[in-house]
């Protein structure tokens, strides 16, 4: 860390009991004060002000926790969250407006509306890898829908957690947003409380714990979990540009991104050229010695460092590979997996039964395996052979190949000729499918997730057309009723 970097302030932890924090959020919601559109707008302005008025402090906290440079902090955390808030403010009035619903002929004259109403108190549980974005981005949707919130920042990003705990009471003095800090004991106690929705970003293992706890109160959940997001590449003409985009997406935040490219599939003849292009891209982005670059991050803790180093067993390192436990530094590393898995060069195995450790679990670090496969069709079979990924990235000039991956695989998202960037599009839902998560948020999809669309039906007493469906039934009336009820309008 250079002397030009701002120092992280020492911040006190919140002392309020967990039950009190949740009760305050519940009382604020029950008062009805957060429901009017004007109140929602004020909350979004307060959230934006919390970010914009404290940008240096957030940059310092992210540097302390993850060695994120100010530029990376702006691009991947602060800026993308402010963009989400601005997008929501721009469209909130339209999103929150009641919508007309169809009424069948048998119930005319009648009127139906769908009225979005807030759910109540929402718990937002953040991951440590993007401790600002995955905490405050869903919070924007929670507040826009008229809810109150309790935030649980990750204890593995302590500087960011402490900063959020200090700033939230200042910008939300009414108790509409509360913060609970701590580790497993505090999280366990928090999950015993009753919430109306829970948003969790993190591992599948913890996601199952959250879901079990939510089931005790029949609380709906949104889970953003991750997985092994695959890449297919066969664009020979655009290989160098594709490699640069791929390297940036993989090694940003030292690879600690839930939608980072996890492994790359291509045909065996393309592997040497792809390796050369990735080496050049890494040097162009982070220099000949990424350890000396202020633009390159560090692994969050020693446990994750040790896990990542263990993933290098059984593979050939063709770029990078240097590591230093004292600095929690792992260089941007590219490895090849000879033969793919279990001795079948045309059919590598990805998942728990893979022949090498790096293909058995989500890497979540700066190691990029290149897996040779015979064809795009074979790559599809590999993807479909294990859990559905959070994202799938396709670099090809062939429209047929694009359709192949879109139509014959299932994933949270598909991105062509880029990676990672779809998360920064407020108009697209962000979420997984199957083992990579459930539910989605961002933009209008946040309003859907954190609201209940309440049907409201009005049926005038006169004329009393309901008599047609009430006994006694005359034969003529019964025929008319049958026709009206089956009209399908």
Descriptive overview:
The chain has 489 residues and is α/β, with parallel strands linked by helices. Helix 2 runs antiparallel to helix 4 and helix 3 (55-66) crosses helix 4. It has a seven-stranded mixed sheet, with helices on both faces. Strands 5-4-3-6-7-18 form a six-stranded mixed sheet, with helices on both faces. A three-stranded antiparallel sheet has the order 1-2-20. 39% of the residues lie in helices and 17% in strands. It has helices at 18-30, 37-52, 55-66, 70-95, 133-144, 158-171, 184-191, 204-216, 239-251, 271-286, 302-310, 376-384, 399-408, 443-449, 475-485, and strands at residues 99-101, 111-118, 121-125, 148-152, 177-179, 197-201, 221-224, 229-233, 261-266, 316-319, 323-324, 329-330, 333-336, 367-372, 392-395, 414-416, 430-431, 437-438, 440-441, 451-458. Helix 6 (158-171) links the parallel strand 4 (148-152) and strand 5 (177-179).
What's this model, at a glance?
This protein is 39% helix and 17% strand.
Secondary-structure map:
Blueprint: H1 18-30, H2 37-52, H3 55-66, H4 70-95, E1 99-101, E2 111-118, E3 121-125, H5 133-144, E4 148-152, H6 158-171, E5 177-179, H7 184-191, E6 197-201, H8 204-216, E7 221-224, E8 229-233, H9 239-251, E9 261-266, H10 271-286, H11 302-310, E10 316-319, E11 323-324, E12 329-330, E13 333-336, E14 367-372, H12 376-384, E15 392-395, H13 399-408, E16 414-416, E17 430-431, E18 437-438, E19 440-441, H14 443-449, E20 451-458, H15 475-485
Helix pairs in contact: 2-4, 2-5, 3-4, 3-6, 4-5, 5-14, 9-10, 12-13
């Amino acid at each position: 860390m250079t002397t030009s970097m701002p120092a992280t302030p020492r911040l006190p932890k919140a002392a309020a009991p967990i039950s009190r924090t949740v009760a305050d959020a519940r009382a604020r919601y029950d008062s009805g004060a957060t429901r009017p559109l004007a109140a929602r707008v004020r909350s979004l302005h307060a959230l934006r002000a919390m970010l914009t008025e404290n940008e240096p402090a957030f940059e310092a906290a992210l540097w302390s926790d993850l060695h994120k440079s100010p530029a990376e902090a702006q691009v991947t955390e602060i800026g993308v969250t402010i963009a989400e808030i601005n997008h929501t403010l721009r469209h909130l009035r339209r999103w929150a407006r009641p919508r007309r619903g169809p009424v069948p002929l048998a119930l005319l004259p009648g009127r139906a509306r769908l009225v979005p109403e807030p759910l109540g108190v929402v718990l937002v549980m953040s991951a440590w890898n993007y401790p600002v974005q995955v905490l405050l981005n869903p919070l924007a949707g929670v507040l826009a829908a008229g809810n109150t919130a309790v935030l649980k920042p990750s204890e593995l990003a302590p500087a960011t957690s402490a900063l959020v705990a200090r700033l939230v009471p200042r910008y939300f003095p009414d108790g509409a947003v509360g913060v609970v800090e701590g580790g497993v004991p505090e999280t366990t106690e928090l999950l015993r409380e009753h919430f109306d929705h829970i948003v969790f970003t993190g591992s599948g293992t913890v996601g199952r714990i959250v879901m079990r706890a939510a089931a005790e109160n029949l609380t709906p959940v949104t889970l953003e979990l991750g997985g092994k997001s695959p890449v297919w590449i066969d664009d020979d003409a655009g290989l160098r540009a594709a490699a640069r985009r791929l390297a940036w997406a993989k090694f940003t935040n030292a690879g600690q991104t839930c939608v980072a490219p996890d492994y790359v599939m291509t045909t065996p003849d393309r592997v040497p050229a792809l390796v050369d292009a990735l080496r050049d891209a890494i040097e162009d982005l982070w220099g000949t010695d990424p350890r000396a670059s202020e633009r390159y991050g560090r692994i969050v803790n020693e446990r994750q460092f040790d896990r990542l180093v263990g993933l290098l067993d059984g593979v050939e390192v063709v770029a990078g590979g240097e590591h230093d436990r004292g600095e929690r530094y792992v260089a941007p590393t590219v490895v090849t997996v000879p033969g793919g898995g279990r001795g079948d060069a045309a059919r590598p195995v990805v998942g728990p039964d893979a022949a090498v450790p790096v293909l058995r679990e989500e890497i979540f670090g700066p190691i990029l395996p290149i897996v040779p496969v015979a064809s795009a069709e074979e790559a599809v079979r590999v993807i479909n052979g294990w859990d559905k990924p959070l994202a799938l990235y396709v670099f090809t000039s062939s429209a047929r190949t694009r359709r192949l991956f879109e139509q014959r695989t299932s994933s949270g998202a598909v991105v062509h000729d880029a990676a990672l960037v779809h998360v920064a599009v407020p108009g697209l839902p962000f979420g997984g499918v199957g083992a990579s998560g459930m539910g989605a948020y961002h933009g209008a999809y946040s309003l859907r997730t954190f609201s209940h669309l309440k049907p409201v039906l009005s049926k005038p007493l006169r004329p009393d057309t309901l008599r047609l469906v009430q006994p006694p039934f005359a034969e003529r009336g019964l025929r008319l009723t049958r026709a009206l009820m089956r009209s399908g309008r």
